[in-house]
Amino acid sequence: QVQLVESGGGLVQAGGSLRLSCAASGRSFSTYAMGWFRQASGKEREFVAAMYWSLGKTYYADSVKGRFTISRDNAKNTVYLQMNSLKPEDSATYYCAAGPYGSRWTAATQSQYSYWGQGTQVTVSS
Questions:
Q1: C-alpha triplet 27, 73, 102: angle, nearest 5°
Q2: What average pLDDT does this structure show over 102-117?
Q3: pLDDT, tens digit, for every residue of 42-95?
Q4: Where are the beta strands (DSSP E) in the chain?
Q5: Which residues make beta-bridge pairs with 97?
Q6: Contacts by 52-60 with C-beta closer than 8 Å and gap 24+?
């Protein structure tokens, strides 16, 4: 059974940093893409960042490019989202997701992710 467990959320002041973790288990993710999405209160869930696990190729939403970094630790089967220079508008529940990577895969398409974590809350105060 595939499980994605996020951790690392919390309350931080604007300009601060947080690192989210997503511990993945239940299968090999070498042919999978791992993504981070977020949903703010009253808004739709949106793409943040993604990585093709095997090659380490990364993708970012324009709103976080240059501030957030997605990475992985193969030994721990864990994906990270390092978030720097946080802004109040980054406040949201952050979700980890996993889905098979293919020739027609697009990072931001939520339907292409088969598995989702339960989410971790990030609150950035001004």
A1: 50
A2: 92
A3: 999 999 999 998 888 999 999 999 999 999 998 999 999 999 999 999 999 999
A4: 3-7, 10-13, 18-25, 32-39, 46-52, 57-60, 68-73, 78-83, 92-100, 115-116, 120-125
A5: 35, 116
A6: 52/101, 53/29, 53/79, 53/101, 54/30, 54/101, 59/107, 59/108
**Alpha helix positions (H), the chain:** none
CA–CA gap between residue 81 and residue 67 (Å, rounded): 10
Torsion of CA 70, 74, 77, 82, to 10 degrees: -20
Tell me if 7 sits within 8 A of 120, measured CB to CB: yes
Contacts of 112 (CB under 8 A, 6+ apart): 33, 99, 100, 105, 106
Q: Are strands 10-13 and 120-125 parallel, antiparallel or unpaired?
A: parallel
Residue type, 113: Y
- Indicate the pLDDT class of residue 33, thresholds 50, 70 and 90: very high
DSSP 107: T
